[in-house]
Amino acid sequence: MSILIYAESAEGKFKKVAFELASYAKAVAQSMGTTVTAVTVNAGSVSELSQYGVDKVLKINNDKLAGFTAKAYADAIKQAAQKENVKLVLLSSTTDSLYLAPLVAVALEAGFASNVVGLPVSTSPFQVKRTAFSNKAFNITEISTDVKVLSLGKNSYGVFENASSLTEEDFSPSISDADFGVKVQSVEKSSGKVTIADADIVVSAGRGMKGPENWGIIEEMATVLGAATACSKPVSDLDWRPHSEHVGQTGKPVAANLYIAVGISGAIQHIAGINSSKVKVVINSDPEAPFFKVADYGVVGDLFDIVPKLTEKLKAFKAQNA
What we know:
By secondary structure, the chain is of the alpha/beta class.
């Protein structure tokens, strides 16, 4: 009886969250004396998963699943779980998996816990620690169903190598036309940039930038740091930046290792969406800005003076350590 994970990929390559989920699953499996099985959809080489503790991979290759359709993917994961007779299914907290997890739980008649941020507190009874109230608190949730589904909070566990011997198996679940009630017409993706979902560092800016023409200093800092760029809701509403960069409770949630907020006052909705980030740095001219109350580090001053100087320092540091 193995633990099953859904290892997400894009364009044939695994996302970072797949390795974090595998790392987490391996630790849980070792505590329970079992193994880790991953199910993949249209992924390329799966051998990389063995570095993070996956023992077996069920490889689904199906042209019908080229575009993400939650119901069809959930049906495939359900069939994989039933084939392996698993009692614990793990998914990440990406946008796709947030759609998938409740569908998988319903299909398996399983108890479901989202926003899990640590290894199980107990396996008998089965209890996990979760974030609550927009990451302002934690609770301990007990799941009593025979099959259990967990959604792991992004960047809440980390990526750890734990090599295993990998077995690969082709898997062809029965996919019904009824699973494709929603049709994907097109998917538009930016290329050549670090995505917010995969970024360890995010540089975000707000209305303090005064206009879209000033965004070059943010993009330059992000390039030096290898970071993703993001923005506050008012900025995306003003069309200064694309809506895909809007982070916060009403935008994309961020759980980066480092989150740098430039010219963002810190509305409660924004803070709630980025509060899971490990280190938060704020640059703002207003010393009373709410963001300073939750920041690990804060700089009070003119961002148009501070950001270019900070970028130059980062460039120099990077050159010295090249």
